[in-house]
Amino acid sequence: MAKRHDVYGTTDLPVLLPAAERLNRQAAAERVLGAPKLRLRAWHGLALAAVIVLWTSFVWAQADGAGNEQQESVISAIWRWLPVLLGGFVFNIAISFLSMGIGTVAGTLLGIMQISQVWPVRGSSWLVTQFFRNAPWLVLLFFCMFLLPFEFTVFGVTIPFPDWIKAVIGLALPVMANVSEIVRGAIQSIPSGQWEAAHSLAFSRWQILSQIILPQCVKRMLPPWMNLYAILTMATVLASVVGVGEVMTLTQRVLAAENRPEFLVPFYGFVMLLFFAYCYPIARTTQKLELRYAVKQ
Amino acid sequence: MQEIYEWFRWLNEATGINLTIVYDSYDRERMIDGFVNTIYLSLVCLGFSVIIGIVGAWLQGSPLKWTRRLVNGYIQLFRNTPPLVQMYFFFFALGSLMPRVENEWGIMEPILSNWHWAILSLSFFAGSFNVEIFRSGIEAVPKATVEAAEALGYNRLQTYVYVVLPLALRVCLPALNNNLVNLVKTTTLAYAIAVPEMLYVANQIWSDSLNVPEMMTFLLFAYVLLVGLLVMVMNKWERSMRLPGFGA
Predict the structure, then answer these.
(1) What fold characterizes domain B39-241?
(2) What is the pLDDT of residue A1?
């Protein structure tokens, strides 16, 4: 990204803008807290309430439009199916955790391999990274779904390999490639003077990497890593296309069971809301962390 | 050509590697159509998403508080929900509310087809990223440059068209290209609402010819090559458009 050019708003004169004092206090409070504070205002609550009221009235009008008084309202239907849908969503999050874990470990290794001094290691890890970064997530998911066996037999013991594990692997592959790029980028963003200084202090290459470079990288890698996690969480829905019973599959089954066309908008909207409620805080925190770390560079 | 087809037919008989998309003319044409559809979908969505981005960035600079909030709400909603759920929401949920019209064979049909919904949802998804990209690009143009243009007698529109946009475009080109690559990859989601792009066609072929591993491998390499080529061209373009001494 391009740096912002603050031609305006910078001055050497001792001017304290009205906001500066407030911002200072805020920054001090956050430093004590160790994390950016969520600043909710009254209008956030009002906006949320307005959305809910509009939503329910819209849904109500639609339910009335169906003309049958004995039919269940949408709100109570969502309420009735809530355990099922939330269960599916928890499954999504479980898939995202597992994929992120596997992808992060494999991706970190791959990223370190990308700066290796041995060219076959460097070249092959670069190729693997680019390959899995350029392939669409859905195609990789299909690939793992169809080409991994549904069970393994090791020394006569049959290990089942259910769909969702294949989905976890299929999602972990692109995560691995992206983490690899994040790690490589972070390592290369550390000034080379640090490598040279550490060399002159007789650190070995591995010592420099593990004790000097990587600890500094963690901070730089955190915002893009969290961003990747949000993308992965949103990608877990893709597993529904290949038949894993997560929230989207369950929603479609619920809709098929209810067989009421006016439920389509609220139910799909509800799934969107679930993901929004989970991913939006992550995105906000990522933004705040980015701003926080950008100043100190 | 005939010899190549014959060779692939022989390959199937000799080794069992069944690439029907080469020697079977029906499968071959389907696959080519799928490829063309993927490109077409990407290009149309790219066009619309750029328009959404420019209009959104312009609206975000509006002095009206609620216009800005509305645009921000759109951005946050579309960035923080899965694109597949958006597509389902558009196609199944909003699609069910659309009026139906009679087509030329007298069958009642929704006014917007799955193609339209795929283009709509993908454009809005990619557009939500473009708004932020364009805004950061426009912000990166120094105010002094704009004022210099004003001093030379340019009016607001002229300043925007001749000074701000060319500079801003170069600044946001890398981010824009990233988004384009992402968009090409996201077109695979149109599979879910039966738009005949590459993944959907491949699925049809392996259902008919029972050659799942071959088609899967072919598909993976086809996408990697397509995206890889795109990335290469874009990087070249970025280098040639780079502003010396401006930006990072």
Answers:
(1) MetI-like fold (1.10.3720)
(2) 44
